[in-house]
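[09:14] KT: can someone run the structure on this one? pasting the chain below
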Amino acid sequence: MEFEGKVALVTGASSGIGAATARLLAARGARVAVNYHKGAQRAQDVVDSIRQAGGHAVALQADVTDPGQAGSLADATAAELGPVDVLVLNAAGLGAHEAPIAPMAELTWEALERVVTQQLKALFLTTQVVVPRMIAQGGGSVVAVGAALARRPAARFLPLAVAKAGVEAAVRTLALEVGPQGVRVNAVEPNLILTELARHIPEEQRRAAAERAAVRRNGTPEDVAEVIAFVASERASYLTGSCLLADGGTAFA
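[09:31] RB: done, structure tokens below
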């Protein structure tokens, strides 16, 4: 129960890595705000599963790429649960099917721009409203969900690779800015994880990713949630500005 008495806000938590993280943080004692944009029923299912397990959670709707809604989300979390101690930035600003997977020659500038802009807005706007509140209360932990693509790009994934490289740069910069005020900022960078997004990736690519990994399998949302929970916890109190690969050993395979 290492998060007993803590409040966690997980953006994009209606499915996949976000949902697994919300469940795990709640199981370890946190009161969890399960943010969603459009998946109301899925978010409520996550909340129901947390409550059935004896945890405390609420579902809160907000589009975190909208400044007003990002601010309202922070206000609603504080009103429902209390000030945020742990912020998990999982929302990417786009649905799983909206990030194009194609060679550069087949992309438009608008498609690339949209993926990068939405990803960075989801990170920037939420962080900008939550982190000053963390500082005012004496500290907190921010964990952004990046991607191994930021360091090991793959053909046909240019928009996501560029967007996630931006996440990595933002995390390192923010860590320097707010570390003296007691806020840690880190990223967890998974490779291909068996989420809703993976269903849009050809089976042969999923199989190839598993074969490249040192552990010889694809990762699950629960695998990544465990890493996020560690990074967010006081066990990682000396860790900030770090971008941890959660890729089953793919980067060095």
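[09:33] KT: thanks! The chain has one domain: 7-200+220-246.
[09:34] RB: yep, looked fine to me
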